[in-house]
Every structure is written in structure tokens, then in C-alpha cells.
UniProtKB/TrEMBL annotation, chain A:
This is YycO. The keyword Isomerase does not apply. Residues 84-94 have a biased composition (Low complexity). Transmembrane segments: none annotated. Residues 75-94 are annotated as: Disordered. The lineage of its organism: Bacteria, Bacillati, Bacillota, Bacilli, Bacillales. It comes from Fictibacillus nanhaiensis. Keywords: Signal. Residues 1-24 form the signal peptide.
TrEMBL record, chain B:
This is Uncharacterized protein. It comes from the Bacteria.
Length: 241, 400
């Protein structure tokens, strides 16, 4: 009887608290997992994007879904690793204003959502104004004095390129203010048009892709995430915040 | 042995259930004011202060951004009312009433409870206020997306009978109230120009009037450090002029701008200067929107180093009137906030060494000294109960 009870309790525990990653790899529905990790992305948008890429590249839709899933898992593992060292309100528990920097530089900060810490990037349009893409608002500007982040959780970086490219990149990002709405699609945003809805990392990435042909993405692939921009080669730390 | 395994499994099961039911949520509800309680007409009777906290717009990607209106009772106890997020949100007050705003709802709390939904969510606040003569509340947002390709700052205004929506087609760098009008400093980032404009609210319409262009050298970077204040003759605001390139250090002047309403003459008065400053945000006020105050022909400006400067409007004389103690010099904040009323300056302070981490310091501006410390109980617990999101303080008002 006790053995039976123990087995029942163990089975219940496994069923109740197991996570999808516990399933065998070949049982994973990549699409389902991607949408679980990116719940604001619609199934239709994901599949439409994947079909378009498959048509252009010759890759199978399954292979592309697997690649997207692996990129997401990679970003998630980076997020978990950083969360392990940084608290909810920064390592010191304090907050700071982003503060000024040079035109064309960008800042990175952790950005918590219910499902993962995506991180967030925004670009300096001028020393005192940030241009960034935020949910639903789309591209907005905000004063560097008013934008608060967690201390120890953020940094300002510069892009190693000509001042012309930096100025043009910032001007281009600013030109999208009032035009481009927000997109929840991080997973294939490298393949979507530079013109149109975009998220924070796509805004900075597109700005430099179009102005200097720089690829601010540490690992390429289909999606450019905020951490990919932060860690991209050709970027230099200006200061930790 | 089997008993041990059985009890171990039972503990795991119970722990798992507790985690799933209570802890695996973003926020604790245990410290929240119930919806029904805030609707009571006597809700504000025993409240002496209100604080506003919110997540930033980027954290609303999952639609779960949060803001808190934390009310401090006469006894010092803090209670939080949870709403949806609104970065840079604020609280407006009038007699026995407060206006609370989140991303898609306006609430009037006090004598009569009323709430109004918005047809479109907003993610960044700019200013809330109350126009006494018109008996109108207003809330201005940094909306961002402009349907015609420009920059929009939506404004909702009204009272318990309803709210009306209009648009100020500019990016707003600073704002304030001049009797029955809203005054805004708009920033045209392409032309690198700043303009003072007046916004007049009427029943079903607003009019925006361009007053003047601010004399501003394009060689220096400028950012505002205060709201716009006004007396009978002048508009005033404090700004930061950054000299040269911003690197790891900064050279900057903090300047008071004075604009004559009639002649449009513009004057600048330097309040303080920083050279080769490494902590480049340390002098930023605890709250830029609440950093300055006019009282008895003196303009007061409190910076983030705890220094309060006074500018005598009749003589143009600048003095440092008081310095707060134990203020961090590295720009790191713990929700410090400012509120002025007449001769009084109230400062929300944080001290990690205290059991109750937060308290309010009360200063007399004319005497240049601290009068008292006001206790707050439970604020730290409320803020610690927010899990999985970062929230930041954006406003503070004493209600009595």
C-alpha cells in the first residue's frame, strides 16, 4: 500500500511540476515551444514568416522552426545566467538614470517579462535623447535624464565605425519615430523588412545595417535579440550603469 | 526508510503546490488595497501622502506591467493600490481628491470615486495636474506614434463628469501649469529647437499657442532638470548644458532659464557647475518633474546631491539654502522623491541600515533646516513584493 502511495505521489509530482524541457528532444513541438517562450507572437505571424524564409532559402519549415527554437533557448540560457548574478532591482538594489552619451551609442538594460528577461536596447539620438522601440507605442523618444534602469544591470556601448555612420544610424532610427509600430517578433526579425513594425533590437540593428553595413548581432541566425546587439563585435563599452 | 521517503515526497508535493499557488506569480496581492476600499468616499480621510511607482514601457511586452499608488496613512502605515503600468506616471491632487492614471484607466479617488477607460493604451506619462479655475484634471502622455508622421503627446482632461481626449502634436521636454493654462517646452529634435507653448483647455477642444523659441546654441547639448514654473512676469525652468563630448566624464552647467512673458526677453543664471565629473548623473534631481518650486519670490531647486539652491526673483541672487545629509554622491537612487508645498520641502529618503528603510524628511525652506522625520511603515515590504519586474518611483505628494 505504502509502495503504491509513494509511486502515486511521485507520479503526481512529476506530472504537476515537470517542465517541457524534460521531454525528449524528438517529442518537442518546436512551434508550440516557440510560442510558449514568445506568447505575444501569434502562430500565424510565426508560420507566415517561416514559410517566407523557407521559400527564399530552400530550408525546410521544420529546420527553420528548430533553428528559431535553439536561438531562443540560447538567449534564454544567457538570461538565466545573468539573472543568477543580478537581482530584481539590480545587483546593488538601486536605480540610476541612463544619463547622457554620444549620438549613435546605445544602452542595454535587463527587461523582465512574465516569461523571460528579454533585455532591452535603445539608441542615443543625441546626447540627451534616446530613441527606442517599446511595446505598442512603437518608436518613441525619451529624455536620458528620465529613463531609469537598475544599477549594475545596464551599460552604454558605442559602435566602432565612422562618425558619419553613427550620425546617420541615429538619424535613421529617429526617422522611424511616429512611423513604425511595435513588433513582438524577435525570432525572425533579421529577415523582416527594415521599414515597418519593429522591436528594440531590430531598430538598432537595422539602423547600423543600413548605415555602414554593420551586422550588430553576436551570433547571426534568424533573430536579433537585445543581448545579441549588446554583445556584437564592433561594439565597445563606454560605461557600466 | 519507506516512511522517510514518503514524508520527503509529501514535503516536496506540498512545497510544490505552495509555490505554484502563491509564489509563482509576479506580484504579491497581500499588500494591495482592495478595489472596494479605494471606492469609499472617506478613503483619503486618514491618508497623508501618496507615492507612484511603475514598471518601464519596455517591461510591458507581456502586458503585465504594473504601477502602484502607495498611500501613507496618518499612522505611517503604507498601503498599495495596484494598477497597470505607466512609465513616468504621476498623481494629481485637488481638495479631497486624487487622480490616478495607468496605461488605460483614469481613476478619481476621494469624495466621489469614478473611473474612466481609455480608448487607446498609453505607455509613457508626462504630467498630470489640476486646473483650479476650470475644475479640470488633465493627464499628458508621451504617446510617440503620430498618425501623420509627427510626434504626439496625447492629453486627456476632464472631471467626474467625463474625460475628453486631444493631442499636442509635439515632443515635450518639460511642462508645467500657469494658473489656468498648461505650459510646455517642446523639443524639435530635427531642427534642434526648443519652443515654449501654451495649451489652453476648453470644454471640447484645446488650443496650442507658440510663445517663443528658446535661444539655444546647437554646440551645447541641453536637457531639462525641472518643470516649468511661472509667476506674474516670468516663466522659469532649470536645464543642464553639457559642454563638449560626453565621454566617461562630463563638463556641465546647471542653468536657470528665465523668460519674460511680455517682452520675451530670455536670461540665464548659473546655479552650479561640474567639471570633469565622473558620476555624470549624480546631480540629477531625485525627481526632475518635482525639483523646483516658487514661494514668496524665491525659486528653489533641489539637485540629486541633496543641495537646495535659492534664486531670488527680484534680485537674481543665487544662494545655497540647505544641504541634506547622507545623500549618495554616485547617482544611485533608492526611490528618493521630492515634494514642495509653500515653505515646506518633503523628501522621501531611504536608509538601508534602518528597520523601516523609508521615511520622509520635512524641511523649512526659509529657515534652511530640517524640521522633522516622518515615519513610514511597510513601504519596503510593498516594493519587495514585486517579483519578476523592476519598478521605479515617479511621483510623491503630501495630501495634508
Amino acid at each position: 500500500m505504502k509502495k503504491h502511495l509513494v509511486t502515486s505521489v511521485l507520479t503526481f509530482c512529476l506530472a504537476a511540476f515537470s517542465v517541457p524541457s524534460a521531454f525528449a528532444q524528438d517529442q518537442i513541438s518546436y512551434k508550440k515551444e516557440i510560442l510558449r517562450m514568445q506568447p505575444d507572437l501569434t502562430s500565424a505571424e510565426l508560420l507566415s514568416s517561416v514559410r517566407s524564409i523557407a521559400k527564399n532559402t530552400g530550408n525546410t519549415e521544420d529546420a527553420l522552426l528548430q533553428q528559431i527554437y535553439e536561438e531562443l533557448k540560447h538567449d534564454q540560457s544567457k538570461s538565466k545566467k545573468e539573472n543568477g548574478t543580478i537581482g530584481t532591482m539590480g545587483s546593488s538594489g538601486g536605480t540610476v538614470s541612463v544619463g547622457p552619451s554620444s549620438k549613435g551609442n546605445f544602452y542595454y538594460t535587463a527587461s523582465q517579462t512574465a516569461y523571460m528577461n528579454h533585455g532591452h536596447v535603445g539608441m542615443y539620438y543625441s546626447s540627451d535623447v534616446i530613441v527606442e522601440s517599446v511595446p505598442e507605442t512603437g518608436v518613441r523618444t525619451i529624455s536620458t535624464t528620465l529613463r531609469k534602469v537598475d544599477q549594475g544591470d545596464a551599460q552604454v556601448k558605442s559602435v566602432t565605425t565612422s562618425s558619419t555612420n553613427r550620425n546617420n544610424a541615429a538619424n535613421w532610427a529617429f526617422s522611424r519615430v511616429g512611423i513604425d509600430a511595435y513588433s513582438y517578433n524577435f525570432v525572425t526579425n533579421r529577415t523582416t523588412s527594415h521599414i515597418g513594425d519593429k522591436n528594440c533590437s531590430k531598430l538598432v540593428w537595422s539602423a547600423y545595417k543600413l548605415n555602414g553595413n554593420l551586422d550588430l548581432d553576436v551570433d547571426g541566425g534568424l533573430g536579433v535579440y537585445p543581448r545579441d546587439v549588446r554583445d556584437a563585435p564592433g561594439t565597445q563599452l563606454v560605461r557600466n550603469i | 526508510m519507506k516512511k522517510i521517503i514518503f514524508f520527503l515526497l509529501l514535503i516536496i508535493l506540498i512545497s510544490g503546490l505552495v509555490y505554484k499557488l502563491y509564489l509563482d506569480k509576479n506580484f504579491s496581492a497581500s499588500l494591495s488595497i482592495e478595489n472596494e476600499a479605494i471606492k469609499q468616499t472617506n478613503f483619503l480621510t486618514d491618508k497623508k501622502a501618496v507615492l507612484y511607482f511603475s514598471t518601464t514601457a519596455d517591461q510591458d511586452m507581456d502586458g503585465k506591467g504594473v504601477s502602484l499608488a502607495v498611500f501613507i496613512k496618518d499612522s505611517g502605515e503604507a498601503d498599495a493600490f495596484k494598477m497597470k503600468g505607466l512609465e513616468l506616471g504621476s498623481v494629481a491632487t485637488s481638495q479631497n481628491e486624487v487622480l490616478l492614471v495607468d496605461k488605460n484607466k483614469i481613476r478619481l479617488v476621494g469624495d466621489t470615486y469614478k473611473e474612466f477607460g481609455m480608448d487607446k493604451s498609453q505607455y509613457t506619462g508626462e504630467r498630470t495636474g489640476y486646473l483650479e479655475k476650470e475644475k479640470l484634471y488633465f493627464t499628458v502622455f508621451n504617446t510617440g506614434v503620430g498618425a501623420k508622421g509627427g510626434y504626439d503627446s496625447n492629453i486627456l482632461y476632464g472631471n467626474k463628469r467625463g474625460f475628453h481626449k486631444e493631442n499636442i502634436p509635439h515632443y515635450i521636454a518639460a511642462s508645467g501649469i500657469d494658473q489656468s493654462e498648461i505650459v510646455v517646452l517642446t523639443q524639435d529634435n530635427l531642427k534642434e529647437e526648443f519652443h515654449i507653448r501654451k495649451v489652453k483647455l476648453s470644454k471640447n477642444d484645446i488650443t496650442t499657442q507658440d510663445i517663443l523659441k528658446i535661444n539655444h546654441s546647437k554646440e551645447t547639448n541641453f536637457s531639462t532638470m525641472s518643470a516649468i514654473l511661472s509667476d506674474e512676469t516670468f516663466y522659469y525652468f532649470v536645464g543642464q548644458k553639457t559642454l563638449g563630448e560626453v565621454t566617461e566624464t562630463i563638463d556641465t552647467d546647471i542653468v536657470l532659464y528665465r523668460i519674460d512673458k511680455n517682452t520675451h526677453a530670455q536670461d540665464e543664471f548659473t546655479l552650479s557647475s561640474y567639471r570633469d565629473e565622473k558620476n555624470i548623473t549624480a546631480h540629477y534631481p531625485f525627481n526632475i518633474k518635482n525639483s523646483a518650486h516658487l514661494y514668496n519670490d524665491v525659486l528653489y531647486y533641489a539637485n540629486g546631491l541633496g543641495e537646495v539652491f535659492e534664486f531670488e526673483t527680484k534680485t537674481g541672487k543665487v544662494n545655497k539654502t540647505l544641504t541634506m545629509k547622507n545623500v549618495r554622491k554616485d547617482g544611485v537612487r533608492h526611490n528618493e522623491e521630492l515634494f514642495y508645498k509653500d515653505d515646506n520641502l518633503y523628501v522621501l529618503r531611504h536608509d538601508e541600515k534602518l528597520k523601516e528603510k523609508y521615511y520622509i524628511e520635512h524641511y523649512s525652506l526659509t529657515e534652511g533646516k530640517k524640521i522633522e522625520n516622518i515615519k513610514i511603515n511597510g513601504l519596503n515590504e510593498i516594493l519587495q513584493s514585486i517579483k519578476g519586474k523592476s519598478i521605479y518611483s515617479y511621483d510623491f505628494k503630501m495630501l495634508k
